[in-house]
Amino acid sequence: MKKAVYPGSFDPITYGHIDIARRALKVFDKLVILISDNPNKSGLFTVEEKKALVLEALKDEIDNIEVVIGTGLTVKETKKLNATHIVRGLRAVTDFEYEFQLTHANRVLEREIDSIFFMTDNKYSFLSSTTVKEIALFNGELSHFVPKFIEDAIEKKMKELNNEF
Ligand code: ADP
Predict the structure, then answer these.
(1) Which of 9, 10, 88, 138 is the most exposed place for a label (fewest CB within 10 A)?
(2) Overall pTM surpassing 0.90 (yes/no)
């Protein structure tokens, strides 16, 4: 069984992430979505909320995915999960530089874990969770970027945050 890990912040999952996960599942039997719990990166959603959103977004693929919250180094977690590859998405040349460094650093840490890259459909090539949150902040239309239930979750979360101030 071919198993890979797809790590990221997924704050929240977008059509870009969903597209990459589906492409990866054409190559791997099992895909572990590893949501990084990074205390230095404060997100809009908690890791538990992000996990629930990922599970809902990929419910058609539920038999072939697993969603795990990661607290350690991705490459070490990948080994622990008995996966052979790390999946990453490439949007544009700008992603390449960062991914190049990350892949080589990971290779130094765990020689046998390799990274594999997929390119999204070009309609998502500009899309990031950050862009989605910025559009939401100014009440922009999100339907091209995230499923409706995510749009609702973002709206609810932003209302909660506004009420805190
Ligand atoms: P990170 O904080 O690690 O960049 P993200 O959740 O932003 O986490 O992204 C996780 C992975 O998904 C990265 O490889 C990123 O390049 C990829 N990704 C995110 N959005 C897209 C997109 N629209 N198209 C292709 N890949 C994407």
Answers:
(1) 138
(2) yes
